[in-house]
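Problem 12. The chain below contains 464 residues. Write out its predicted structure in token notation.
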Amino acid sequence: MRIFSGFWVVAVLCATPQASGEPAFRINSHFDLPSEISISGETRARYEVLNGQFRANGTGDDQLLLFRTLIHAKWDTGPVTLGFELQDSRTYQGDSGTPLSNSITNPLDFLQAYVKFDDLKLDAIPDWKADLKLGRQTVSVGSKRHIERVDFANVIKSYTGAYLTAHHSDKSEFHAFLVVPTARFPNQSDELFDNVLSGDEEQWGRQIWALHYRRANAFESLASDIWLELFAYGLEEEDTDTFQTPDRSYFEPGFRIFRKPKVGQWDIDLDAALRTGTRYATSAATDTQSLSVSAEMVFLALGFTFQTRWSPRFAFEYYYASGDDDPNDLSFDQHERLFGSRRSDLNNTSIHGPLTPANLNAPGFRMEIKPSERLDARLYYHAAHLASKKDSWVIAKLRDPTGQSGSFIGHTIDARARYWIIPDSLRAEVGASFFIHGEFAKTAPSAPDADQTFFSYAQLTFAF
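Solution.
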């Protein structure tokens, strides 16, 4: 029995007509639950196809059928809220060449189990109120490039610890948290393909902390609705009996200037961070050579939304994440992605996703349209290069330490379209990605024979 797969629920709802103007189906209203009890969630089915491999030694084509169901229950007593969220993520139709991992498959487990203290008054700081969440939870802040509750991925990451969110009367925010990531199980190939049930566990040897301030209307004299963000993130790791790490000790300060896209105005997203610290080259217990870390990332988007039919938005984008110029020295200069997003900025992911913000130099552009309240679509392009031609192309697991394979990864084109079949309830989404392999993707040691990769998917999501 496919517990919580949600496929049959979606199929039935697709065939169920809805009267014009009828509110979306919600468990609370349908079953007339008490006001202090809230139960919500979603169930999603997606089918993916990939033709042409780009990963090291890849051969043949690939397909995958994915199901994800989330059920979130909350009991709001007033000053305190208790919350529990179940996640069930399963896959089918994969084969030995499918890049399956516990970020794609994670059968039934608790995604969240927390207690939240709401609207705490900060007497020492007027006009501020705070929420404090304790326990297992998901975390998203600001641009979500540094830590995110993912959406497209079949498995959502969770963390355990304390998360304080403070809100000012002028809409400014302050975020502070200290958490450990949750290790997702199963993590062995045969168990992943069989969707074996196995409880997730906290990685107590890895601590993530952050201080993140978001200032609303920070540049009123220049333009309205511009946010300024100042932040510092940190990661501390040590080996445990069950989990080996590179013993990373990172400190990452940065800033962001952001103006949300809006019809008839320009928008901006400038996000930059500098990472320092130490780490080992690998997670092996025998690796005890400490490397100094010096890495940086910059994302820039400049766009404009036209006040015409379909509200088209055009934007120039640039993503840079440093690479390691010399694999033989005692420094590690690659800005590896840790807990943040990559799909929103770079490419459709899952069994595809050739680009990630690590050793990347990728200028590009984006086009978005919104023909109606039900329908939206986007397309974006990147000319992807390695920031350092001697460092690895991380997702493909390809590297040429000599640098003779060049730095051009290739041209990537990604698109998606979404349509609300039943507004705020049932949404259909289709997407496609076309990756034309560049010099490095073709000639690096262990590179596959394909000259291009095509990925497509179709999914249905039902929110309840």
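Discussion. Confidence is low (pLDDT under 50) at residues 1-20. Students who got a different answer should revisit the alignment rule from Section 12.3.
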